[in-house]
Design goal:
There is one protein chain. This protein is α+β, with helices and mostly antiparallel strands. About 20% of the residues lie in helices and about 35% in strands. The protein has 5 helices and 10 strands; from the N terminus they run ααβββαβαββαββββ. It has helices spanning about 15-20, 25-35, 65-70, 90-95, 140-150; strands at about 40-45, 45-50, 55, 75-85, 105-115, 115-125, 155-165, 180-190, 195-205, 210. It has a 6-stranded antiparallel β-sheet. Strands 1-2 form a two-stranded antiparallel sheet. It has a two-stranded parallel sheet with strand order 3-10. The two termini are about 35 Å apart.
């Protein structure tokens, strides 16, 4: 709070324990408490950092990720990990209101704020609504792509927010250990005609996000 670590990165744990004349065990307990409060965060093999302000996320707004970050003075970046067709099963098929075994587009992306990976997301799309979409530049906003190429705009959404441990396939992409606390936000989106068009499974670092809703 006094700005002693204005560079953003904390010294190594050994240096901190010597500086504050404490044991490594006590130091780690203190760092863990600060992490739980969202004051600092840890990255695998890189150490501890001062946490930037959380991104304010209003699920009722249909603003896309890059616009949301820009409005808050932050810089967003999107990396596409995979984009291919999959076969739907289980809850995903139910969420998209398609028969089990139906094809769907799957897009996997990592999204960063100010150079820090904060979100891993898997998008599942009804391909009947978006023919040829996998050939597009998928680092851009899907919201804009839906509108500009297909004339499809969001008309309704159902959100499910579930806190819990980040799974092994998501945690390394966010530079944390598997089992670290996170938020799973599932969004099932409808278009202006109330057709279910896609389902997003968002895995957030819990210390990167503040969900703020006003109705």
């Amino acid at each position: 709070m006094a700005g002693e670590f204005a560079g953003g990165r904390l010294p190594p744990e050994r240096t901190l324990s010597e500086q504050f004349s404490t044991t490594r065990i006590t130091l780690r307990e203190a760092l863990g408490q600060l992490e739980a409060q969202g004051i600092i965060y840890r990255e695998l093999r890189r150490g501890w950092f001062i946490a930037p302000p959380r991104l304010i996320y209003n699920p009722l707004h249909h603003s896309h990720f890059h616009a949301m970050a820009s409005e808050q003075g932050r810089i967003a970046c999107t990396e596409v990990l995979a984009a291919h067709e999959v076969t739907l099963a289980g809850r995903l098929a139910d969420d998209l209101m398609l028969p089990q075994g139906s094809p769907a587009y799957c897009i996997k992306r990592v999204r960063s704020i100010d150079g820090r990976a904060v979100l891993y997301v898997e998008h599942y799309l009804n391909p009947a609504c978006f023919p040829g979409l996998l050939e597009e530049d998928l680092t851009r906003s899907l919201t804009h792509l839906y509108d500009q190429r297909y004339g499809i705009r969001y008309g309704g959404v159902r959100f499910t927010i579930l806190p819990g441990p980040l799974p092994a396939f998501a945690a390394p992409l966010l530079k944390v250990a598997a089992g670290s606390p996170g938020l799973l936000i599932t969004r099932v989106n409808r278009d202006q005609q109330q057709r279910v068009i896609d389902c997003d499974c968002e895995y957030w670092r819990y210390d990167a996000l503040c969900v703020d809703v006003e109705v």
